[in-house]
Amino acid sequence: MFTLSIRLPQEPYTTQIMASSQEQVQDIRASLIEFPYTFQYTCFHLEYKEERINDYVELSEVPGIGPDSELTLVEDPYTEKDARLHFIRIRELIGASGDRTDTIYGIQAGVSLHDSVALSDATQAIANYDFEGPGSVRTLLAPSEDSSPKTLKSISLSPWNPPPYNLRSKGHLLYLQLTTNEGEQYQITSHVSGFYVNKCTNSKFDPSPRQAPKAFSSHSLLNLISSLSPSFEASFSALQELGSKKDALATFQLTHSIPASPWIVPPPSAANMNHQSDIARSQESFLISGAESADTLRDWNEELQSTRELPKELVQDRVFRERLTAKLYAEYNEAATRGAVLVARGEVPPLNPTEGRDAQIFVYNNVFYSFGADGVGTFGPEGGDEAARVATGKDVVGVKAVNQLDIQGLFTPGTVIADYLGKRIVAQSIVPGIFKQREPGENQIDYGGAEGRDVIADNETFVPVFEQLSKHMRVKKHPVWDKQGKRHVLEGSIETKGLLGTDGRKYALDLYRITPLDVSWLEQYWSEPPKEGEGESKDKDKDYPHRMAVLRPELVEAYGRVKLRKFLNSELSKRPSEAGEGEKQGEEEMNGESASQAKPESESDEAGRKADETTPPKTVDIGGFQFALNPDVFCGHEPQTDEEKEEWSKDEEEVRAACKYLSSEVIPRFIQDLREGDIGFPLDGQSLSNLLHKRGINIRYLGVITTQVDTKEPRLQPLRRLAIQEMISRGFKHVANRYLRHLPHVFATSCVAHLLNCLLGAALNPKPTAETDASLKDLYSDTDFSFEKATPASLREELAGQVRIRFRYDLGEDWIQPIQQLPLLREVSLRLGLQLEAKDYVFSKEISGSGSDTASVSSDTTPVPTTVNGQANGTSKKNKKKKNRSPNRVSSPAAASPATFRPDDVLNIVPVVKESSPRSMLAEEALEAGRISIAQDQKDLGQELLLESLSLHEQVYGVLHPEVARVYSQLAQLYYNLEEKNAAVELAHKATIVCERTLGVDHHETLLSFLNLGLFEHAIGNTKLALSYVRHALDLWKLLYGPKHPDSVTTINNAAVMLQSLKLYKESRIWFEACLTISEEVSGRQSIGTATLLFQLSQALVLDHDWHAAVNRMREAYNIFNNTLGASHANTKEAETWLTQLTQNAVNEAKRLQAQKDLLTRKGTGRGKIPLTNKVGLGAARPQPPVGQTPAQMAGREAEPKMDTRSIEELLRYIEGDSGKKPTTPKKRPANPKRRAQKA
Fold first, then answer.
1. Cβ(303)–Cβ(921) under 8 Å?
2. Which pTM was predicted?
3. Helical (H) or strand (E) element with 315
């Protein structure tokens, strides 16, 4: 990094910027337009020594440039596109752009609550926190802000646009009109040379410049406005000052990812949600894409594939290639999603209007669209529409995997799936030649199944690239047979197709079955659908909806590692001297299996790709090890010869063994790891799904997992509850999609509100009625309004049926009673893309009649305040928080027309998107190398590599991207472990904001970011700020899961220790009590974790001068340690020492406390604090481990919980603050210089 000077054409005439030799010149340009003194420049180039610099070269390629070099900013003449973009930029800069209605971003997309949380005062709220109270949707709302200063009354395009032919040839580009705050109206000409005030009026056209003294002109529109309006400078400065109070990351525009749309948003009546008059809003389409829309018509496929063909030999080449790839995929994903929304709403005409609705195809903006349904009967034997929907989802996963492998010469179409209004729309870039009519006798496909299994193509030119693909995917080269019985040898699944495009590229299509079928599941729960005319339904025990049940790639990799271990043990067993070593190594690897599967996704994929390269003991050659599975077994193929039948039988046995490994090894080990608390517990349905997928477990096994969980085992009850909630939310999604699929979008909100009332509002109104506009129904006479007939009973029956056939789990009769409404409402909203109005939804008559503001209380338990010695720990502060929140509309009516949800409560529906963009391998390699170096105690090299990885992530993805948020979070934890706490705090702040904006304000990774940010802030002394973050995280926790999550023990314990450091001993004691209560529920009264918390609580009681309770708690801790660990264990001995000393000194200490109290009255508080240590297992403040990851993995070392080694006398001295005198003796002691300095 070095400093560059930039010479400017206007004040301040020079500025400086930090740059890296690896940065491109366009990065310098992008930075300049964000600086306060240079953001008026948008149309310019940079020169060095009077030579123009290409925007797309790196600084290192510019001859002579280095530290303290001076570049010159030279203003360029405008083109019409430059003028349009400059106008958009200035409108946004001066706050004149107003609100927008976007088709895919939704309301408050990309919002961040980080700054508002930091401004809140959490000390009082922490002291009176309600641990068992329900969550509140208002946690997800930013407090209302003061209105922004108005810089202009209006600015827009003039009605005189576009310029006539004769003036266009003289350099006229656009005509603008603006009205200043003083009420003066000006007409402005945008010229190639800049902007000037012209002589036009509303009725007279004369775009020539005004004469002096009213002649105003400037190259920048911002400078021109400043010269026209006397009040502009002051209001613009006030606007900038308001923006500077926010973190820069909270205001940057997202360019490389679609911003997260929250499921709870302010009502339309809120101050920051008012829809304002702005004529330029309707002009933005022209401003962005021009009159001919030429700027938006792009050949997406050619751009994507050309990028893959860029060179990648040098590091600079890889950076440029990956950066361009990330940018292109982000732009394509956005364009494809916008088109998918229009297709779903019926705004795009089909190419084949005579076909059925599900068979129709569309082309919009050079993207090909189709529905994720079996419109032409391709998937009839596999399950019809259900199979087609699943296949499209798995195809995206397959395309993403192939893109990640980056095989030379193999290409995939850009693929995006958007679930919107009950429809699944598949968007693909148009592969050249895919619609080409082949000659008679030629297949439409060049490799794989051309017409199912009947016709098979095997173009030899595809063998090399498919061979590489199969090697990485663990796919075995195998024969298949067509309907004539002819044998064809394929490198991949018969369903994976190869197409030779007219551009000469080899494309891989239909990647939805790159792994074998889960034959164990299908044989148990699937049967062929009855043929037409037979009229028989499926057997109830074998009615799984489709045959697309395949094994996950993660499971295939895990099973491959098991096979490798067996191979190593087999090889070593042949050598007697090394047999013991081989068994030991295999045992160690088996023990590490769960840890390896619990790695973050990037690490898991990396480990999977390098499984072949795993290096066993030096004396073993693994060249002979081979492992691959045949994905086409159990698919109806019939081998012809005995040799083929024997080989096919072996392939079937191998697949069966992999399926057995899933059910007998992976799933029980997953449950065992959660039972023992070895990994972070899932926080919500999404984190549970991610954790299952990383372990190689399909979501369809949720019912199996729930059944295997012992209902009497307290530690696993949260898993059971989360799994049932996830099955219900997924089942409801399928039910809602059935009603929404062919429903006009104007009735979508009515349908959703009615279905939510049937699911969650039946306790308030057991017979809800759908609210639909009768006048609109007459316009759609052929529409199926069957959703109106749904009742709570029918919906629950249908929902229970969906859970039974999809997850093989029986919910029982009264399954609705134990669920928590808010977490389930959140899950359902996220799955359907709902944006609901933020208000207190009434779920039952009891809550409605009580008049309580917090109407969203869960129905399973009545909230009971945590008590300490018989006294309540305080009430919640919801009424106080309401004063700082956005105003709400009328809450759900309870008396006049009882209904929990109304159509007006569903403010918007956004698409739920799945895409196939690859990750940056270069950045991940640098990150992994940095981790390894630090683990090997090469800290300097490790930190250098980590910073290099961070720089690469930011260069490739931009700053606002989920992958960048994850690397920020990982680096923050690494720096924290390296005692670089200030750097950890800075990175943790960035991670939190980027998580909020790209993943969601209540995403489980956002919650973990807030928890770790709180811990890091406390580590540098900002304890009050840390408590604000912790409180916000706990509020989020209630929305995601509800109270008493197993991992919240760590968080509440950390907060209790933080309160101790603030000398809030009574409040700290309350939090330790709450922590103990949760531990007893989720881990059991006699667990080691509970004993450790009892030990810590006893210390807190000593600080609070409750000696009697301290003795009782220490006695309980001692008994548990003694019974569980034995009398000789260090923890037991330490607890015994504390218990003995506490008991012996109880009476004497009571007298000392009285003397101490008198002393405190004279001197002020002199009590000390218990410092944060890592000695007490559960009580030590430490970063919250990610879901599915152990604390040791997160820290990069083994965690060894130890008991606190302080004696009772040491703690008592600490309580007294090591002050100059003991209160019980007049003998003088040397004064403490540290305390003397504190007094001074």
1. no
2. 0.84
3. helix 315-344
